[in-house]
Amino acid sequence: MRYIPLLMLFVVSCCKPVDLKKEEVLYNDYIKALPDLKIVSKDAPLVLKVHYVEKAGLLALDTEDRDSLYRLTEDLTRTALGYEIKFEETLVFDAPKYLKVVKSRFNESPIRFPALAYLISWFSPERDKAVGDAISSALKGEPQERLKTYLGDDASTANVTKNFLKNLSAIYAEADLDRHPLLSERNKNDEALFSYGHWSTILQGEHEADFILTNTGIIGADTGMPLYVIARGGVTSAFVENNAFRPYQGVGVIGLYPFLAEGEFFNAKRGRLTKEQKFEAIAWVWVHELGHLLMKKVENYTLEDSVHRAAPNLRYYDWVKKIRETKNHHSDKVGVLKKF
Ligand SMILES: [Zn+2]
After folding, report:
1. Taking a C-beta distance cutoff of 8 angstroms, is the pair 216, 254 a contact?
2. How far is ligand 1, taken at its centre, from the CA of residue 292, in Å?
């Protein structure tokens, strides 16, 4: 869960104005009341259900591709984390239908809070100021050395904000397969599919799947971005959220766009990758997320040869090269979460 400084007091959800302060209290109480996370035992094989959500016009994985991705991730999970897992894809949605299915969750108190409060909309007139405020609070209290690793020599709020906005506009300007920008006024209703807060709510309301795999990306500005998301221009590759209904107490989402994209921004910042390299990067990121979901591991920022440390930037494949030879991912040195 991200810590979110509150931006607005009221928002309008559906038809009635919502008091965000009250909503935040309800949400925090709800999370507090969830049972503390338990580490999942490695003794028995596990089944994880996956829903696949595909948005037309973006590069995607067909059934065979997804099958190889599931098998590769299962293999890497066995060797890196010691779990015997099996993915079962139970439903495939096209994105507009999926949004219809999950839309009621955006009005369901208290899990609607992230969808109501986190997103700094790309189309908001106050966007740049709100992004600056979010970045300023993210940088506060971080050790200089870490700021330098993630953000470069000039880690001032002004410079980081400028670069962040430049990167995020370059991402949204990437052409989709129909030569339209990824996100613009034209398809502004798709913003929910790119929004961390909306995905957080979707995952918390999920009853059937342990992971949602989608060819969109969790890419945007929000009020609680951690350093590595700021450094990547708003890209959250994947994340796991609390869930009261599923056996592992959490549900994750993997956004494929940053891995599959062939646009100018990603080819420059991530590097050109072959199909096999893309698959390997996605699979390792998925293993990282399984470290959260099954072992309840906290985010690690320091162990460079461990899968528990997320890729610090978009050079996913450099990260893969660093961790795939690792025989010991130092799981014992990484702390455990009480709540996601
Ligand atoms: Zn992580």
Report:
1. no
2. 7
- Domains of the chain, by residue range, sit at 49-271
Q: In what order do the strands lie in the sheet with 46-54?
A: 85-94, 46-54, 211-214, 250-255, 238-242
Distance, in Å, from the CA atom of 197 to the CA atom of 299, rounded to the nearest integer, reads: 18
CA of 2 to the centre of ligand 1 (A): 12
Three-class SS of residue 296? Answer: coil
User: Coil, helix or strand for 146?
Assistant: helix
Q: Are 14 and 107 in contact (CB under 8 A)?
A: yes
Model pLDDT for residues 176-191, shown as the tens digit of each residue = 999 999 999 999 999 9
Spacing, Cα 286 to ligand 1 middle (Å): 10
Task: Express each pLDDT in 162-178 by its tens digit.
Answer: 999 999 999 999 999 99
Question: Could you tell me the distance, in angstroms and rounded to a whole number, from the CA of residue 303 to the centre of ligand 1?
Answer: 13
